[in-house]
Design a protein that fits this description.
Layout (H helix, E strand, L loop, with lengths): L2 E5 H14 L7 E5 L6 H8 L6 E5 L3 H13 L3 E6 L1 H16 L5 E6 L13 H4 L7 E4 L3 H16 L7 E6 L7 E5 L3 H7 L22 H33 L7 E4 L6 E5 L3 H14 L4 E6 L1 E3 L3 H7 L5 E6 L9 H6 L8 E7 L8 H12 L8 E3 L3
Parallel strand pairs: 2-3, 2-4, 4-5, 5-7, 6-7, 10-11, 10-13, 13-14, 14-15
Antiparallel strand pairs: 1-8, 6-12, 9-11
Helix pairs in contact: 1-2, 1-6, 3-4, 7-8, 9-12
């Protein structure tokens, strides 16, 4: 193992490189790549690496990048790409296709605001618009989690009980370009953790049809199978946590992470790097004698309903923070989480940091103060962070 001071973009690329080399005795590694701020330095780093079998292919668009990934994956190789924002929107048709093909593609998505007007800073709306595309979604808190989640994601996606693509999501600039000490592990460890990919429905010598016409009943069967795989994720996820800890000596976070929730009457729910700031605010409120805790959603798809119900079961009031907006409705995390709170609990949605504004502890403390003063929930609100 080696601890290095690297950005999350480089952490992702280094993990993908190790994972690609770990499949050298099987069908190798590949993927389509296309630059877009703020993931460009990830694919620049990856493009400079050498692989015993395969390599990444620069293409003319994000749509083509995912098309290449589908071809590489259908050939039975391990595959990777990265994108963000409008690049993900352009890629969307093939994102859905990859999900429905049940291909274990891994994509690092650097969360960035959708335009126009153009904005290169963090917002979760780009990946959340793809939450129903048949992919698993993990949202990372720091650079170490980005590195570990790439390796973890391959093991999860390629498990024969799952066989689904996965997005590993990180906040633009807050993580992508921020240097942190990261344990990057070594090739022998990754070889021990990642089995060679054996895709059961890969293309072989015998002719097969990929993506033909389904009649209604066949589509029902395929969706049911896909849902069964989603339902299997929690148990497989827990198994892989154990295996990861045995090999690397550190344990990946649970799908839902609680902080000071043992006696909490109030809770703040968040995703991504916002959760780090929430912890600081929770500590400050605890010093004032307020029984508040924090809950971080690490995996949004499949949605961790049982874990969320357990985390929030003792709460009287819950604030749900979104770094996104579903226009005409409210925050996506609020929409998906409010049904998991105890009966009679006040649940207030707040959208903040939209377009990349800094979320600071005093913003979270203001949200908590507002929550404490409520006797009933109101419509989701947008907080200006200045």
């Amino acid at each position: 193992m080696a601890v290095q001071l690297i950005s999350a973009n480089h952490a992702a690329a280094m993990a993908a490189t190790l994972a690609g080399r770990a499949n050298r005795n099987a069908r190798g590694f590949g993927g389509g790549i296309y630059p877009i701020t703020p993931q460009t330095e990830c694919i620049e780093f990856l493009a400079a690496q050498e692989f015993e079998k395969g390599g990444v292919i620069p293409v003319e668009s994000e749509h083509s990048a995912m098309a290449v990934c589908m071809g590489v994956s259908l050939a039975g190789a391990r595959t990777f790409t990265a994108s963000a924002s409008n690049g993900l929107a352009f890629m969307a048709e093939n994102v859905v296709a990859a999900g429905m093909y049940r291909l274990p593609i891994l994509m690092m998505a650097v969360n960035r605001t959708l335009g126009p007007p153009w904005n290169i800073w963090v917002d979760h709306g780009d990946t959340l618009m793809l939450r129903d595309s048949g992919w698993m979604h993990i949202y990372c808190e720091d650079n170490q989690e980005v590195f570990d989640s790439i390796l973890f994601g391959y093991r999860l996606a390629e498990d024969h009980r799952i066989l689904m693509p996965i997005m590993i999501c990180q906040d633009a600039f807050v993580l992508s370009h921020t240097m942190m000490q990261t344990d990057t592990s070594d090739q022998d460890q990754v070889d021990a953790f990642l089995p060679e990919l054996d895709l059961p429905h890969r293309l072989r010598q015998d002719p097969v049809t990929i993506g033909g016409l389904d009649f209604p009943h066949e589509t029902e069967v395929h969706r049911a199978q896909h849902q069964q795989a989603m339902d299997a994720v929690p148990a497989v996820y827990a198994e892989i946590q154990d295996e990861f800890e045995k090999v690397f000596g550190r344990r990946p976070a649970d799908r839902v992470v609680s902080y000071r929730m043992e006696d909490a009457q109030y809770a703040v729910v968040s995703m991504g790097t916002t959760a780090l700031t929430v912890k600081v605010a929770v500590d400050a409120m605890r010093e004032r004698g307020i029984a508040v805790g924090a809950v971080r959603v690490r995996m949004l798809r499949p949605y961790p309903e049982r874990e969320m119900m357990e985390a929030l079961r003792g709460c009287k009031k819950v604030a749900i923070l979104d770094r996104d907006i579903s226009l005409g409705h409210g925050g996506v995390l609020w929409s998906e989480t409010r049904g998991t709170v105890p009966a009679g609990c006040v649940v207030q949605g707040t959208m903040l940091g939209l377009g990349g504004g800094d979320i600071r502890p005093h913003h979270i403390e203001a949200v908590i103060e507002d929550l404490l003063g409520r006797t009933q929930a109101g419509a989701p609100v947008i907080m200006e962070v200045v």
